[in-house]
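# nightly structure sweep
# worker-07 picked up a monomer target from the shared queue
# config: single-sequence mode, recycle default, output format = structure tokens
# input follows
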Amino acid sequence: MKQATYDWGNHNILDDVEFKENDLKEFKDLLGVKEGKTETFALMRAGQLLFGTVVEINKEFAVIDVGLKSEGLVPIAEFAEPEELALGKRVEVLLDKTEGPDGQVVLSLEKARKHRRWEHILTSYKEGSIIAGTIVRKVKGGLMVDIGIEAFLPGSQIDNKRIKNLDDFVGKKYDFKILKINIERKNIVVSRRELIEAQRASKKSELLENIQVGDLRKGIVKNITDFGVFLDLDGLDGLLHITDMTWKRIRHPSEMVKMGDEIEVMILSIDKEKGRVALGLKQKEQNPWEEIEKKFPPGTKVKGKITNLVSYGAFIELLPGIEGLIHVSEMSWTKMISEPAEMVNIGDEVEAIVLSIQKDDGKISLGMKQTERNPWEDIEKNYPIGKVVETEIRNLTNYGAFVELEPGVDGLIHISDLSWTKKVSHPSEMLKKGETTKAQVLSVDKESKKITLGIKQLSENPWESIEKTMPIGTTVKGIVKKITAFGIFVQLENQVDGLIHINELSDQPIGKIEDIVSVGDTITARVLKIDTENKKISLSMKTEGKKDDIVVGKKRKKTPPKEE
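# output follows
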């Protein structure tokens, strides 16, 4: 038999094949080619496009005659248009399977449409082309877009800003740029971000050419940082610094704006080379600092609320946008304040005096203590040196006692000024907190706000006249206060302590000191030596002439007999 050519729907031409007569009949039966339809044939396989006629319609399927041995079935749901589903209607289908479970060929109307759409995209578009599409669903790593067929939109290519929820994009229509076409796998990757960035670049270039300093522009807050806010001026990003947001003091830009807000700002400066724009918000209003020196000249008493506390002071609002600082050192004449919270709290209404104004720096210095009388102003007049005061002990320390002379004015009685004669280890040996005592003003330091006082200065210093009142050789009386291994300490009548060395206790050898004297005994002794510089007196109980006894209080103790 001669060569046969089967040209059926322009698909899969089988040329240059020689058949015998019987072989041809068997092969046609095998392919399902009906007798009388055509004398040509071709080898059919899944994936081919065929034209057929609707010959039967039931509840679930439409029966399509495509000229093969058996008709094919197409689900009713695949007929998108009502006019397609009609007897005798010619439709294009895709051969899905050459033989289904029931022996019939399986056809698909929807797959035929997709095949035609794929061919249309290949012939009409290329990589880099712009195509419209609708986002249909979310998948792992991105979104699927219907551009005639489904294309993949990676998450990184959806937008040029951070995306919180991909579901927000489903169902929306956009233009996309085709990034990649894979013919073998029949898939397409698209981008929306590249179009957005290209549009922004175009708008940015146009804006930089047209905007001028002083222009008012609306922008959307796209980022908030500690130092300011970035606004999208419809293609051009601008920085609104925190210092240009308001004339008043704020701690963070988020106190005034939030993400997505639309605000109108003023163009402050433009750097066309770097594509940067500085923006201002407070510049739209009159500068409240313009005539600040006329409104609040130094010395003016003002009133306002505490708006903020910092380690070095408190800020008080004088007018909207105008704040002044009360430094901790200007809060009290008398108290040593380390934290402003010791004096004021946020929200408190206080009075203050304007101390100075630095207009260019936007600073006003205020003082609270200046609204009250300075108790140290006349301190030297009120507390002259030598004045005797009666005061209450407020606190005891290792080095002395603090007393209150008047509200806000304290004085110190140093431990060395408690007694002329006693060796005091701690002020508590002589004073108690809360008790009243008399003291003499010793010194006044107005600049350092210090007043020193003394208690011992209320009485005469016995050491200044000791050599006159107790000359060497004088017999004195005293009370035994302490016994040591080297002797005894005796408190004399003038409160001065003297030492009787063990060698000066008796003319005769002794065993134990306690055999001769006891603490509390009144004794008579003779002055041997006086050291006024070191405040020391040496005494002796050795007798001169009467060696048979020693006077001890009201008792007489026999001296030990001499050994012969």
